[in-house]
Design brief:
Elements (H helix, E strand, L loop, with lengths): L18 H8 L15 E3 L5 E4 L13 E5 L1 E2 L2 E2 L1 E2 H5 L10 H18 L23 E9 L2 E8 L4
Antiparallel strand pairs: 1-2, 2-8, 3-7, 4-5, 6-7, 7-8
């Protein structure tokens, strides 16, 4: 049986316990809207969970924006849960807090009207229901203005 000396062990230099790991955990990543790039298909939330981007029309791209998007964050971390906004459980970084309340209210209204209603073939995974998307699964990351309409960037957790 061969023995290994402690100084011969391989250590993950960026794993848990390293300075690099804690630097990533303590510092939120910049919002893509601030860099004028397309939103990524997945977003890592503050608690480490992965959220999936809600699909939207291809005609709404960063190059079509009238002016830069408005980001929604809490304590510097992008993404605020809709139910936390509605129940005042999240401190939204100003000055976007009133706009976030309006968007969250509209999403809640859509949820109430669309709950357990049939959806277009191919979009079943995005339906509001107890077995698919719940209101508590929806996060707002930003809102973007395209000529004459505001379009929110929404992400959903628990999309396996």
């Amino acid at each position: 049986m061969s023995y290994m000396q402690p100084n011969q062990t391989i250590v993950n230099s960026s794993g848990a316990g390293s300075a690099g790991y804690y630097a990533l955990q303590a510092n939120p990543s910049p919002h893509p809207a601030t860099m004028h790039v397309e939103m990524p298909p997945y977003w890592h939330l503050r608690d480490g969970r992965l959220a999936k981007r809600v699909p939207r029309s291809q005609r709404f791209s960063p190059s079509q924006q009238s002016f830069p998007g408005i980001t929604f964050s809490s304590d510097g971390w992008c993404g605020v849960r809709v139910t936390d906004i509605l129940h005042n459980r999240a401190s939204i970084d100003c000055p976007t807090d009133t706009f976030a309340f309006q968007i969250a209210g509209l999403i809640q209204d859509l949820h109430n009207r669309a709950l357990d209603k049939p959806v277009r073939v191919g979009d079943e995974d995005w339906a509001f229901s107890e077995n698919k998307v719940r209101l508590s699964d929806v996060y707002i990351l930003s809102a973007h203005y395209y000529r004459n309409v505001w379009v929110p960037e929404l992400y959903v957790i628990n999309m396996d």
